[in-house]
Specification:
Layout lengths: L1 E5 L6 H13 L7 E5 L5 H5 L5 H11 L7 E4 L2 H4 L3 H14 L2 E4 L7
Parallel strand pairs: 1-2, 3-4
Length: about 110
């Protein structure tokens, strides 16, 4: 799945295109494109991606054994969260579910 996090009025097209290019280069099958809009006042959703409707849906699809989804491709860690604890929790969740969290730009490039 491709995932983008945008601000109100922002366009997800560039981030989704970058994630699509990564998926194609790494032969990852894209089953869905998910976009969340993060309001400036939404501090909880900024820190905890599970509180965002789209990201929560992505995790639900990944946990579903009947789903063809096997991972999330995002442009950078900040698309998931900039907070350390929730990010580490996501890495553990993906490890436990044998799914992938693929970042186009690694944390050191941000």
């Amino acid at each position: 799945m491709l995932y983008a996090l945008i601000r109100p009025g922002g366009a997800p097209h560039d981030n989704l295109a970058i994630a699509q290019g990564y998926a194609e280069a790494h032969r990852l099958h894209v089953v869905e494109r998910i976009v969340d809009v993060l309001d400036h006042a939404d501090h909880a959703g900024a820190d905890d991606p599970c509180l965002r409707r789209g990201y929560a849906r992505a995790l639900h699809l990944l946990a579903d054994s009947a789903s063809r989804a096997r991972g999330i491709v995002a442009v950078s860690r900040s698309s998931v969260t900039t907070a350390s604890h929730p990010y580490e929790a996501q890495l553990l969740w993906h490890a436990d579910h044998k799914t992938g969290l693929f970042l186009v730009r690694s944390e050191v490039e941000i």
